[in-house]
Design goal:
The radius of gyration is 16 Å and the shape is globular. It is 58% helix and 5% strand. The protein contains 8 helices and 3 strands, in the order αααββααααβα.
């Protein structure tokens, strides 16, 4: 049975959208923290770990990465563009580029903070804040988009058909359409 990563993303999308009823996703609120944000942060980052392993396996079948540094090596060497992707919270005008630090061979700050919360929550509870949750959520969205795009490309190449990232994004149905990616939606809107 195949894991359906997109279904996990959709469940988080509902949680994040519900959260916006209580916390406005504006930069001046990024330091807000709570038990609910902690729950979301830990769960989203756990799913990121799962999908990164699967994505790295698609990019390099022989790779066996087991941590964020090793994932970064596989993803960055693939030159697929993930690191430079900017994700937008459409309704709120907030943008994030969650993997940009990989371009400088550095671990994303939101991931470092996640490890602090996971391993020493009593000291790092404030790091389970809205800004880190939204960056992790944006990262999960990107990973799903790139994972499914890569998987579909592998399948379609066998049949001689290419698929663009735009087509993959459109095929992944979001119930709430919370996030969008600049490179996909700008080129899609230009058509």
């Amino acid at each position: 049975m195949e894991a359906n990563y997109w279904q996990y993303y959709l469940s988080f999308e509902e949680d994040v959208d519900r959260l916006f009823r209580y916390i406005e996703p504006a930069e001046y609120n990024f330091a807000v923290y709570s038990v609910e944000l902690t729950r979301l942060y830990l769960a989203i980052c756990s799913e990121i770990d799962v999908i990164l392993k699967a994505y790295c396996n698609l990019l390099d079948e022989g790779s066996k990465p087991s941590n964020i540094t090793e994932y970064a090596e596989v993803v960055v060497s693939s030159k697929k563009g993930l690191c430079s992707e900017t994700v937008n919270l459409q309704r709120f005008g907030v943008s994030m580029t969650p993997f940009s630090e990989w371009e400088q061979s550095s671990t994303p700050t939101w991931w470092k903070k996640h490890n602090g919360v996971k391993h020493n929550r009593n000291v790092n509870f404030k790091d389970a804040n809205l800004g880190n949750v939204l960056n992790a959520f944006a990262a999960l969205y990107l990973l799903n988009l790139y994972y499914y795009h890569e998987r579909r490309c592998i399948e379609l190449q066998k049949q001689g058909f290419p698929e663009s990232l735009e087509e993959t994004a459109v095929s992944l149905k979001s119930r709430l359409d919370v996030l969008r990616i600049d490179s996909v939606w700008l080129s899609f809107m230009e058509r």
